[in-house]
Every structure is written in structure tokens, then in C-alpha cells.
Amino acid sequence: MVRVLLSLMWLLASVSLASAQDLQSILQTHAQEVAKPSRNSVGVVLDDMVASGLPQVPVFLEQWIARSVWQDDATGLFYIASEDDNTLTLRDVDSGEETTASSEVFSQLRPNGGVRRVIGTALVQFQLSDPDPVRRQAALDSISRRSDASQLEPLLAALAGEDDPALRARKEQLINFLTARFGDDPEQRVAAIASLSSDTSVEARAVLSQILAVDSGVASAQPAGNIARILDPMEDRAASYEDLVEAGLAPAIVPASEVRAALEANIVDGRVGGIPLAQLNRQDRRDDAYRALARDGIVPPLVTQDDITTALQNAVFYEVYDEDDPIITNAARATLDAIQTRVGWAQTLDLTLDGLSLASIYFLAAIGLAITFGQMGVINMAHGEFIMMGAYTGYVVQLILPNYTVSLIVALPLAFAITFGAGIVMERLVIRHLYHRPLETLLATFGISIALQQIAKNIFGTQARPLTSPDWLGGALVISDVIQISYIRIAIFVLALVFLFALLYILKRTRLGLEVRAVTQNPGMAASMGINPDRINMMTFGLGSGIAGVAGVGIGLYAQVTSEMGANYIVQSFMTVVVGGVGSVFGTLAGAGLIGFLQKGIEWLNPSNTLAAQTYMILFIILFIQFRPKGIVAPKGRAAAD
Question: Which of 43, 122, 395, 463 has the fewest CB atoms within 10 Å distance of its CB?
């Protein structure tokens, strides 16, 4: 008998073990809950699936969420299926064997959104330890989007076996977040909250904000609980009194129309509330009549402004934390304040980088003008079109050379050569006849500017053309969640530095630079020393135009390449040169820095209106020039006298 019982027990254990390795058996055990799940009933099914540890469970859960699970109406078996017309391609949930059948004898499982979220939470437990790092990352992303107390234990269990450093750090961060919000031990929660003080990420701030979430309320006396702050009801009397009425602590305000209707409805023998009709032409008597009706219970009581003030002063308006433990909320508040301080410094640094980037762009756009206008005194309104020509040169080169790195290397010197030649042609044909005649030069170059824009429209059309940066310039340098700068802007900054040092070298260390400075300061004396002023003027104008062309390639990587793109920079270029100091390279650099940082600062104060920011910037520059007409770096010596 004992031997028979032992045999039966062994047989039952074997059957149970076999069933544990069979997902279909688990599904059949809970067939009703699987076919028509609810948020309350699906948990039992998921617990059994998780406990089984079967490798096919996460696949089934993924398909269940995607509504790709079907049930055979005749046998009740569940399959993973895809539908094509009225034909289903069925896959066995355990073996993966595929068959086909008509969809008319199958029912599709359609769990609602709430059930899918519960299934997704269970699926995360499998994905956290999945061999595929992509799946583990997806599980962590899911936890970060929908944090829940039930996810803390699976995360802790999955941490020990994590061999990927990045994923391990992410798991530790999420464990900190979940412990801070849902931990059972207050000391552990406080420690987790304190560890977030150096984390300036949006997620960390969101966790602390959720711990510090509050509900507003009103009471007749000081309330109990973890009070966040006491509110001043006088800041918004109307809204505060509505809260009192909703809480049942004050009578509702009777509208004037209802007061009038009540008085009209209760006229008895020429009186209302004992007051003759002839006296109701005064507000105070109408109020007295209405109060008399209210004392008799005929109408609701009248609420005056004095009554509202008294009611508000006698009530307590407050905000109470959702978190009951004040130790937790105090720690969260202190940590969030520390993070906000760090974020403030980070935002300042980020704003500084933005200003530096914009200053680099303005310096690139203005450095060529600093030569033609600053050194030669020529007001060249077509300077922006040389920038445009350089940008279009880069675009054409990319059409010929699809390798963006090679095309960029070719485009930079080619843009210089083309715009250098265009500048020389312009100087020989137009500018040389207009020296020392600034008004005529301005009008002539303005006409050339319009002509060049129209030529560009005829050749390239009116649509913006792409000047694509190489892959190594894509993306951004991310220092933190707050501080980041695109690689293109870094490249433009480097290009601006290269131009700065190259131009300083040319002007200070080369024969051409010496001759340019000589002709600029005293053309007659320079000519007597054997220098040809006409040739130097031509070369100087060509150099400034060529630099504008190279700047156009750099700016084109950042801005849209259109026929009007030069017009967007001509005003800032002239402001940069004038504010910095005419004739000074360092002045141009200082002017670009002032204008770039000023514009970014104004945009930060008024981020919704960039046009207003530019207007305020121009007004500031006008005032600046009134007090310092020679610019930041004023010319010295004979140049200053000129």
C-alpha cells in the first residue's frame, strides 16, 4: 500500500513538473482570465507565468500586449498568430510550430490599456535579465516611464548579474529613484534622496517633485498632517471663497440677478420684506429687504464683501504633502533646493556657451567686413552676398563629391578662391571709382547685393538648399541634462579662432599686412615708399571677400542656404565692426562677443519673442555708441585722428 502511494505521489510530481514546463497548460488553467482579463484577475495568471521561469513566457507576454494572441473556439487552445485576409498563421506558444487556419473559428484576445500596463510590468521582470542588452535597455526605459513600487525588487535582483557598465549604472540610478519614492525603510529613503543631490537630470528632479507633491485644502481650524505651507486667501479672494463654499464652510454668493428676481417675486401689498417699494431705489434698502426675506427662510442668505472677508480670515487655507512623513519631505526639499542651485549654475554655463557660439558666428560673418570696412573704409552692402556665395559653393561641391568630409575640405579653399576673385572683380569695376565717397559706395554695393541675390535665385531657385555636415559633426557634446552644445557650433568656434589667428598673422607678420596698414594710415607716404595703393586696395578687398566666402561655408552648415541668407547677417556684421572698433581685429572680436552674449541674454529674459530681443539689442547698441562712439577697442595714433 505504501509502495502504491509513493508511486502515485511520484507520478503526480512528474505530471506537475511537466506541466510547469508547458506554457499552454498554465494558460489553460486560467483560460477564462486569459481570454477576458481584467486588471484584478490578470495578476493571478501573471504570477504563475513568472513563477514558471519558462523562456517562452516573455515572448507570449509581448504578443499578448500587441494583441497577437488568438484562441481556438473549439479546443480553447491559445496561439500566437498573424492575420492575412481571413487566414491566420498560427504559432504554438511552446514549440513554435507553425500552422494555418481560418480566422473565423478563432477569437482574438484584445486586452484593454489597463491590462496591457499590468502585463508590461510583468514583462519587465523577464527583460531585466534578458541576455540581449537591447531588451534590458528597453525594460529600464519602461520602468523610467512608468515607475511602480513593484519594480524595485526585480531591479535589485537583476543588478547582481549585470555585466554592462552603462546598464548597471542605469539600474543603480533607477533603484535610487524607486527607493526614494517607494522604499519601506525611512532611513533608506532619506539616504536615497540625499544621493540625488549631485544628479541634475530631469528624472531626478521629477522624482523629488513627486515626493513633494501636494494637495490644497481648506479647514475651519489648523489641520493635521504633513503641512507644506499655509496659503494667503487674499491673493485670489474669489477663488478662495469658492473653495470655502465647496468645502461647506460658507454660503454661496447670490448673484445680483437672483437677488432682483427674489425681490420681485416677494412683493406683498407694495412692500418687500416690510420695506416699501418706493425705498428700493437704493442699494442698501434692497439689501435690507433681501436680508429680511432670508431671515424668514424664503431665500438663501445674502453674502456681502465684508462677509467674504470675515469668512476668509476665519478659515485656514493650506497645502498638505501626499507624503505623510515630514522627515522624507524635508530631505526631499533640501535635496531639490541643492539640485536647483546646481541647475542654475549649469544653465548659466549653458547660456554662456550659447552666447559664445553666437559670437563665433557673428565674428565669422564680420571678420571679412572688418577688413573691407575697417581697414579700407568701404561700406560694402554686398558683403552678405559673399557669405551666400560661399555657402552655395559648399552646396555645389557636395553635389559633385557625396563624401561630406571630403567635400567640406574641398569647399573651404574653393569658396575662398571664388569669393576672392569676385571681390577683386567688384573692386576693379566699381569700388575703385568710389573711394572716399561713402554714400555712392553704399548705393552701388546695395544694388550689387540685390543683383547677386537675383542671380542666385535664377540659378538655385528660392527654396533652401541643404549643406550637410559630416557625420562626425552630427549630434552634440552633452555634458549634462542642462549643458550641451552641438558639434557644428564647436566647429564654427574653432573656425573663428583659426580666422582670428590667421588674420592677425597676415596683418602683423607678412609683407601684405604691412603694406595694408601702410596704405590704410597714409596712402601718399606708402606710394612714395614704392607701394602700389591700387594693388593693395584690390588685394585687401579680395581678402575680405574671400574670408566672407569661407565663413559662408561654416555658417551654411548651421543655417539655411538661401539667396537671402546674407541679408540676415549684414546688419549684425556692421554692428559688430562698429561696436568693436573700426579697423581693429580684436575690436571685431570684442564686438561679436558683446552682441552675441547680449542677444542670448535678452532672449533668455524674453524667450517667446526673438524679434523683440533683436530690437532691444539694437537700442542698446545705439545707446552704447552714444557714450563710446569709437567702439570698445578705439583706434590709436594716426588712425584715430582719421
Answer: 463
pLDDT digits (tens, 9 = 90+) for 33-91: 888 888 878 888 888 887 787 888 888 888 888 888 999 888 989 999 988 888 888 99
Using DSSP, state whether 316 is helix, strand or coil: strand
What average pLDDT does range 368-376 have in this prediction?
Answer: 75
Phi, psi of 226, deg, nearest 5 = -85, 90
Query: Pairing state of beta strands 271-272 and 227-231?
Result: unpaired
Compute the distance between CA of residue 608 and CA of residue 145 in angstroms, rounded to an integer.
29
Is residue 494 within 8 Å of 486, Cβ to Cβ? no
DSSP-based three-state secondary structure for 282: coil
Which range is least confidently modeled, 8-22, 262-276, 557-571?
A: 8-22
DSSP output for 46-88: HHHHHHHT-THHHHHHHHHHTT-EEEETTT--EEEEEEETTEE
Residues 6+ apart with CB under 8 A from 497: none
Residue 113: CB atoms within 10 A of its CB come to 7
Q: pLDDT grade, residue 374 (50/70/90)?
A: low
> With the C-alpha atoms ordered 559, 564, 569, 573, is the resulting torsion angle positive or negative?
positive
In Å, how far are 46, 143, 536 from 526, measured between CA atoms?
Answer: 92, 76, 10
- Taking phi first (over 0 means left), then psi (-120 to 50 degrees means alpha), and beta for anything else, what does residue 36 get? beta
Q: Residues 6 or more apart from 223 whose CB is under 8 A from it?
A: 217, 316, 318, 320
Helix pair 404-429, 533-556: axis angle to 10 deg = 150
3-class SS at 211? helix
Q: Which range is most confident: 161-170, 452-461, 504-513, 572-581? A: 452-461
Cα–Cα distance measured from residue 98 to residue 82, given in angstroms and rounded to the nearest whole number: 11
Q: How would you classify the pairing of strands 69-72 and 106-108?
A: antiparallel
Among the listed residues 26, 70, 68, the one whose alpha carbon sits nearest the alpha carbon of residue 45: 26
Longest dimension (CA), the chain: 132
For 17, counting Cβ atoms within 10 Å of its Cβ (0-12 exposed, 13-18 middle, 19+ buried), the class is exposed
Distance CA 339, CA 135 (A): 32
Backbone angles phi, psi at 450, to 5 degrees: -65, -40
pLDDT score of 392: 93
Alpha helices in 370-403 (DSSP H): 383-400
- Secondary element (H or E) of residue 200: none
Residue 78: φ, ψ to 5°: -105, 140
Determine if the pTM surpasses 0.90: no
- Whole-angstrom distance, CA of residue 307 vs CA of residue 291: 13
Task: Determine what percent of the chain falls in helix, strand and coil, rounding each to the nearest 5.
Answer: 65, 10, 25
Where b means 16+ CB within 10 Å and e means fewer, 405-422 reads eebbebbbebbbebbbeb
Residue labelled with grid coordinates 528660392:
462
Which ranges of 218-325 would DSSP assign to H, the alpha helix? 237-246, 256-265, 283-295, 305-314
Q: Do residues 592 and 359 make contact, with C-beta atoms less than 8 angstroms apart?
A: yes
